[in-house]
Specification:
82% of the residues lie in helices and 0% in strands. It has 415 residues and is mostly helical. It has 2 domains: 180 residues, Up-down Bundle (Growth Hormone, Chain: A), CATH 1.20.1250; 195 residues, Growth Hormone, Chain: A. The longest helix has 36 residues.
Length: 415
């Protein structure tokens, strides 16, 4: 039975609900700021350290492998010991590892620090999404996870603005030193948040069954061919989502600089336009998901993404680039908040944090290799070929999505 205090379907949010959405949005914002510092520092790092396209792309991929490791580890910790403390631990880890990049002068140390940053960032996602799912009505989850995801885009804007100010004057090392800022958030999270009643009750039931969180997670996610297919299919969809996002966000600043001869400040303006489009897309997607169900929401955005990525090749001046960036961002990343909402409704409370982290961070680990692939494609082929690669991925995700019976059931319940 849903707790009436935490899951009230109302226009007025409780104090706890406000703190949950504020904390998760802020956490995702600061995490994304730290992660995307790499995008704006990449061209400087390539020049100073004499990196090839493949070696540079591998930095992002190693970050995503760290996210997978951290996602599984902290997902289990969050499901077993509680969301709030675990959330603060993940913030501290990615903030510390990012700040240490200020002292990195060789590619090996950079790989190590980005792996550690990934551990913290990957652990934060599922724990934060679970806090939202357990604090809001099921018909609000899509919009609330999208609001939290918009926090991530605010972090991207912060990264763009900070990079434009810091890199030209102090260099890329100083940019990463700013990454220590998220540690401040841990104080407010610990002071104002407590575990939800839904989580407390689920732990009581688990204790009575005497079943460990670890065994419960994998027993449920792969207990039948139907559930195993559901889990793997969601991993494919999140892989495509992350491949598109990191492929675009890690490399497009460099593409923009080459295509229009923009400097770091100019490409930051383009990034801000794209991020605004992403944020509007998230709000729109969350509303469609809550009112019409996930199949219609994902269907519209996946097909549109497959078509719209090609419009980047049509940009020949700054104004057209800003408009196209916003449109591509609207569709390509508007879906991001929806995955947490869907996973949280398809998997039970006692494994929710781990299920979110396992599915999304496997997507990050595999999809993150798009940075390497796009780096290689950029070295050898045209921009049209790069966009064609991303378009095919979105079509694959669409075909996978329409085969998922779990999404069909959620859509029927929504109708």
């Amino acid at each position: 039975m849903e707790n009436t205090n935490t899951l009230t379907h109302s226009r007025t949010f409780t104090k706890n609900q406000k703190w949950v959405i504020a904390s998760t949005s802020s956490g995702f914002a600061l995490e994304n700021m730290d992660v995307l510092f790499l995008s704006f520092a990449m061209s400087s790092m390539i020049g100073q350290l004499h990196l090839s396209g493949g070696a540079a792309g591998l930095i992002g991929s190693i970050t995503n492998l760290g996210m997978l490791f951290g996602g599984i580890m902290f997902g289990l910790i969050g499901d077993r010991f509680g969301r709030v403390k675990t959330f603060t631990y993940t913030i501290f880890i990615f903030a510390f590892a990012t700040a240490m990049m200020a002292f990195a002068n060789n590619i090996t140390l950079i790989y190590i620090l980005r792996f550690l940053a990934g551990i913290g960032a990957g652990g934060e996602y599922g724990v934060g999404i679970s806090m939202i799912a357990e604090s809001f009505h099921k018909n609000q989850i899509g919009k609330m996870t999208s609001v939290a995801a918009i926090g991530g885009q605010i972090g991207a804007i912060l990264a763009a603005v900070t990079a434009a100010i810091v890199i030209p004057h102090l260099g890329w090392h100083a940019l990463f030193l700013v990454g220590i800022v998220p540690v401040v958030l841990t104080y407010f999270v610990r002071r104002h948040l407590s575990e939800t009643q839904e989580f407390v009750e689920a732990k009581k039931v688990e204790a009575e069954k005497k079943e460990s969180t670890t065994s419960a997670v994998f027993k449920y996610m792969f207990s039948s061919p139907k559930l195993a297919y559901q889990s793997f299919a969601l991993m494919i969809m999140t892989t495509v989502q992350i491949a598109g996002y990191f492929g675009l966000m890690n490399w497009l600043p460099i593409i923009v600089q080459k295509q229009l001869g923009l400097n770091v400040s100019g490409s930051s303006l383009w990034m801000i336009s794209t991020i605004i489009g992403m944020s509007l897309g998230m709000i729109t997607f969350g509303s469609i998901l809550d009112y019409f169900g996930p199949r219609r929401a994902f269907g519209i955005f996946l097909i549109a993404s497959a078509a719209m990525v090609f419009t980047i090749t049509l940009a020949h001046n700054t104004i057209s680039l800003l408009i196209i960036g916003a449109i591509v961002g609207f569709f390509s990343n508007g879906m991001f908040g929806g995955y947490g909402a869907v996973i949280s409704r398809l998997y039970p409370t006692e494994i929710r944090s781990t299920a979110n982290n396992v599915i999304v961070n496997i997507g990050r680990a595999v999809g993150g290799f798009s940075s390497v692939i796009i780096g290689i494609l950029m070295d050898n082929y045209s921009l049209t070929v790069v966009m064609g690669f991303l378009s095919i991925l979105y079509v694959i995700s669409f075909i996978t999505m329409i085969t998922l019976p779990g999404l069909k059931k959620l859509s029927l319940k929504q109708a």
